Amino acid sequence: MPTTTKSSVLIVDDEPDVLFSLKGLLRRDFQVFTAQSGAEAMEVMAEQDVHVIMTDQRMPSMTGTELMGKVRAEHPDAVRIIFTGYADTRAVVDAINSGELYRYISKPWDPDNLIEMLRDAAQKYNESIAESELLDQLDAYLTDAVQLASSDDPADRDAASIEKFKSRTDQLRGYLQCLRGSDA
Amino acid sequence: MPERQPALLVVMIDTASLRWHVAAIGSGAQVIPLLRSEDGNLDEYRDLEPDAQLSFLRHRFAGVLQRGCDRLYPKQMKVSHFLLIADGHYPDAQPDTTARLAAHFVDWMINPPVTYLLHQGEFREDSVTESLDSLETVAGELPETVAASLWAGWAEMVELLSQPDCWELIASPPKSIE
């Protein structure tokens, strides 16, 4: 599960005033990183724990869809969003159909709606991490639970072992709550 | 979510200088100058094929509208209607470029709605009368309330065009894949 209070968002656009404006809009709700190119974005992704990446489609050197292909390969958990000035249909439809995108949005968007969409994206990231952790830990947890229930060895039931097991149980419950939150 | 005051977002397009200004008209005909481009901000389309010209203009103006929305947000205002007003057709473009550009925005942007207007010649403080008969609607609807707000704010908005310091200058991006 992410440990930071605010979810982190990386905004990628080759126009500095767009980045400045979006940073001002989002910084109250998110930890915001910015990049002016696909290459710079990949550097930020390598150095920071980015939950959501949102990129302009039309940039010199590397398009938004090309960048999202790289992000998907190297940082598959990051939730990916492309924005563009108009229906740049072929590239964006290809990207959506190949599973590289969470959302495609066109300008102009309503700032309130953008914040809401990024909150949803951050929640999706949290759910994805929770699901992954749950699946990773559940098998070992159940094995240990059976062991604990059937063991005759008092050492398996001392206070420290019980406390450790409770802690693992709480952690798994936390993941479950995160996933159930999405159904509510 | 705070209650935001509705405002018209007006993009005034100068087809001789190929530049634009963005203003808001709020309640009580309050005119708020927001953004302006450099001269020649649009001129990249002139080197392109017809479809690419249209694509460039669509993309550029979508970005302009986005910036306008962003600038209104901290003022606790929200766009209720977009108005794109050009003072003529685009030089060196196909004759139907204006109509196709206008139709694109009207078709794709429903909420808030868009109206694309063609002004007869250079913008002047007195060039629009209450009847708005010097403005031709190229695409979209022009509700009476929107027309009344535009008329109420027109003279001040045009007067501000001659005061560059009132507007936030948006630097033109380097020529790109647009």
Automatic annotation (TrEMBL), chain A:
It holds the Pfam family Response_reg. The modification 4-aspartylphosphate is found at residue 56. SUPFAM superfamilies: CheY-like. InterPro entries: Bact_response_regulator, CheY-like_superfamily, Sig_transdc_resp-reg_receiver. The keyword Membrane does not apply. The keyword Phosphoprotein applies. One of its GO terms (biological process) is phosphorelay signal transduction system. Keywords: Phosphoprotein. Residues 8-122 form the Response regulatory domain. This is Hydrogenase transcriptional regulatory protein hupR1. It comes from Allorhodopirellula solitaria. The gene is hupR1.
TrEMBL record, chain B:
It comes from the Bacteria. This is Uncharacterized protein. It comes from Allorhodopirellula solitaria. The lineage of its organism: Bacteria, Pseudomonadati, Planctomycetota, Planctomycetia, Pirellulales.
